[in-house]
Amino acid sequence: MNGTVRAEGKFAFHALRWPQDTNNAGAMMDNRFATALVIACVLSLISTIYLAASIGTDFWYEYHTLSPAENVSEAGRSIWEEFVSKDADEKTYTDALFRCNGTVGLWRRCITVPKNSHWYSPPETDMTTNCISFSLSDQFVEKYIEPGNHNSGTDLNRTYLWRLQFLLPFVSIGLMCFGALIGLCACACRSLYPAIATGVLHFLAGLCTLGLVGCYVAGIELLHRKLPLPEDVRGEFGWSFCLACVSAPLQFMAAALFIWAARTNRKEFTLLKAYRVA
User: Fold this and answer.
1) Cα 224-230-232 angle, rounded to 5 deg
2) Cα–Cα distance between 268 and 278 in angstroms, integer?
């Protein structure tokens, strides 16, 4: 009799405690997944800012010349006039970049020249940076096997690398914005499952950003094979390029967190539901 009463009391104690344990477990899971989603959103925001900043700045590649003022003074204003000319071909503006501490971005090219660069003026140390934008047609213009020689034939590798480095960053940002829209819809529906789509879109955006970096590096290397750097010129990748390099792994990490949170939450919710039914 005493054994029966003790067993019934033990069963009643567990029956009373079971809803509280499942609620605590659910709250713990919710906090864990919410933390993962917050971190993923922060990573996504940072990567978007970095990528947007890299697209809008002109320091993807930098050329450093020992004496840009003397180089410009030797040729007078002809360098700047050729640089800004609508008919300037790839070889013309690349030579100007070599000689005048040039920087190149995805949308603009810049050179450093003296404020007063007349042929009769002595070399100056007071320099200014002047930039000119690539037009939309410039982004899709054909690259030639010998830069500047239109009769040398089309260099398909450099042509498509240049076009891809223009298109891929916009595809990447577009994918991330679409993923953010899906995330907002998931919040409105109070469901984590759509976060899988957000994670997949961030992963694809990371691939596009990584492809952008690879295309730019390959394009620069192929260009320098055609037009080698002069002995007194040093070239290096700039901080705009570094921002794009940092953006790609941030997108991959955000994608991993979104997918992990959605899949794990759905799996544990299914197990918890089965446990309650049992």
Assistant:
1) 135
2) 15
3-state SS, residue 129 = strand
Neighbours of 105 (CB within 10 A): 21
Listed in sequence order, the residues at least 6 apart from 247 whose beta carbon sits closer than 8 Å to its beta carbon are 47, 48, 50, 51, 54, 209
- pTM (2 d.p.): 0.79
Token readout for 100 is 């005048």
Fold of domain 38-269 = Butyryl-CoA Dehydrogenase, subunit A; domain 3 (1.20.140)
Q: Which residues contact 62 (CB under 8 A, 6 or more apart)?
A: 101, 102, 103, 104, 235, 236, 237, 238
Annotated domain spans of the chain: 38-269
| 221 contacts: CB under 8 Å, gap ≥ 6 | none
CA angle 154, 158, 164 (to 5 degrees): 120
**Closest by alpha carbon to 198, among 264, 267, 256?**
256
Q: In this predicted model, what pLDDT tens digit does every residue of 11-24 receive, in sequence order?
A: 344 433 434 444 44
Distance CA 49, CA 254 (A): 14
